[in-house]
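Standup notes
- HV: blocked on the assembly model, inputs below
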Amino acid sequence: MTTQAPRVRQARPQPPNPIKVGVARGSIELKQFFRERDAVVFTFSLPVVLLVLLAGIFSDPVEKTGVEASQIFAASMIAAGIMSATFVSLGTGIAQDRDDGTLKRLRGTPTPMTSYFIGKILMVLVVSFAEVVVLLAVGKGLFDLKLPTDVTSWLTFAWVFVLGVIACALLGIAISSVPRSAKSASAVIMLPFIGLQFISGVLTNPISALSSPLVEIGSVFPLKWMAQGFRSVFLPDSMTFQEVAGSWELGRMALILAAWCVGGLVLCLLTFRWKNGRQG
Amino acid sequence: MDNAWGMTETAVHVRGLVKRYGGTPVVNGLDLDIAHGEVFALLGPNGAGKTTTVEILEGYRDRDSGTVSVLGEDPGKAGRSWRSRIGIVSQTASDAAELTVREVVGHFATTYPRHRDPDAVIDGVGLGEHATKRVGRLSGGQRRRVDVALGIIGDPDLLFLDEPTTGFDPEARVQFWQLIRQLSMEGTTIVLTTHYLDEVEALANRVAVIARGQMKVVGDPATLGDRADAGAVVSWRENGRLMEMETASPDQFVAELVRRNSGNVPGLSVQRPSLEDVYLQLIGEDNSASAYRRESA
């Protein structure tokens, strides 16, 4: 506290750039995320545990391909890992921010909504990246997942990752407005997360073995396309016979994921609430 | 109140404010003026419309009708520059539990166009020795001081304090009062909502009592409800017994006492009605009125 006598109040400069504030928020969001041990364990362990269980149980080789079922699960599970780090962590995290006063405090300061979301997106990009690294390490170490050596495959990996993170993050922000409070948030958010894994070819293999209405529902959402994208990166092209269309459909995949990025943004802008269901 | 350049003579100017929840008016035609540099206290029973009024001034809630100007702008439409000039200490925040005091205060400092020194602010609210502790591990009163630190870090022109000393021990309260006086001396306008009447007497230049969504009375805490001119109780000891006398003119009575006892009156004291007496009387009138209304409804 300064101890000078009453002073003349001067005009203030403009509030700082929203992007700069957003980057600063990203840093404190990451600190908070990694210090909250429950959230870290919850976010990282579920896809890893599912992968270890599934790939451990269904480890038989697929006939005449030289590919093992465990490798297919390892590739598809990367998509679920990203959804956990984005959709689940944002859906529950923002519901929490609404309950504990984070959003209310921000509304009373010059931090704009844009900076809040930049902070969240930076956080989920870092967390998703870490999640993917963990899943790749487990996949390679335990289940003989083959890392591609060509640039094209890694480019595909990069755009599926980026579009998938953005689409799922926006859907996470949108669904955070559904639960009435933080207490009910994880229940509300786990239901679509687990359900989609069954009908998107993550927990079920091959996806073409599912009944077609289920596949059609799954094909509406990003998870199915992300899992398919990662299979295209980590499996040989001879495995396309197991896909619904008999090919990797990279063009269609890019279009649908990009459409979710735009649609998700519109959904967020239409539904976002600053307050929880009880704050009136 | 606005002149041609958008400057206002008052920090807060409210006329005919109305806010309804489900058709029931919670704030019902409230008028309010707070001058620049004032420490202004709002008193009122729970449910009187205090918090709703303050939240409208802070830009948290919209209103149904009335004109509101805070630092020359309508808080319902004001943007980032306006938010840079106000500080808010609300009730019931439990955010940022995983960050240290230094981290959270330091972060918010960077979000303002002009800010105070974070370490000085942390010291100022008495959290110097807890600066590296996580916010979630602080006691309730310490947690509240983090809120105060965040309210003043942006060097606000206008500071809203909603029951700021709840959970403080007596020493911390006195320390907090010093901080508020310091801020006021530096030119910050302060709007204080509290249930502690001693806090009002210690800090406020003016106090308003709100009941049933309307302003009951506004005035200097020392003279509210004409208590400075109201009767007083004079007490003293005479022949080992405590004597009490209620009188409308205590000065004359004391002069008489002094003369009668040749200048030596043991245990002499003069007590005016306290702010609490006046407040309870005002609220009491109101409660009996509403009770009557309920019966006749």
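- HV (later): unblocked. Confidence is low (pLDDT under 50) at residues 1-7 of chain A. The radius of gyration of chain A is 21 Å.
- Next: hand off to the docking folks.
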